[in-house]
Design brief:
The protein is 21% helix and 31% strand. By secondary structure, it is of the alpha+beta class.
Length: 131
């Protein structure tokens, strides 16, 4: 099975006057039936977004994970569940403005199977990460 991990695309795209956004994709469960519904749609949409200069990066998140929280560094070995949904993927998108980012997010095949897409603008990093 190809799975969502097979949909990883990374691009070093240079954009001017476009802002960075992230799409945080959530879904209740990844089943073979869900994959069969969404993967063909992503296989069409992702190349379109690349050609239009919108897709910068697509990171598919594994279900397994570790969460540290609080001052005591409490540890949990389960995916974070938000209203019955877990994070499936994070996409970095370039768009002219929030309205365009929202229009792109509405195209997500994840929505067709009951998932959700959270759209956030990426702010500049307050601490330099360059050497």
């Amino acid at each position: 099975m190809l799975g969502f991990a097979g949909m990883l695309y990374t691009h070093n795209v240079k954009h001017t006057k476009m802002k960075d956004y992230v799409f945080i994709m959530r879904l209740e469960a990844i089943t073979p039936e869900v994959e069969a519904q969404v993967l063909p749609k992503w296989a069409v949409l992702i190349p379109q977004w690349i050609a239009q200069g919108h897709l910068v990066d697509n990171l598919v998140i594994a279900n397994e994970g570790t969460l540290f929280s609080g001052k005591g560094r409490a540890i949990s070995h389960a995916p974070i569940n938000n209203n019955g949904q877990i994070v499936l993927a994070v996409m970095q998108i370039k768009a002219e403005n929030m309205d365009q980012a929202l229009e792109l997010a509405k195209q997500s095949p994840t929505l067709d199977v009951g998932g959700s897409v959270e759209v956030r603008e990426v702010r500049p990093t307050p601490v330099s990460t360059s050497k």
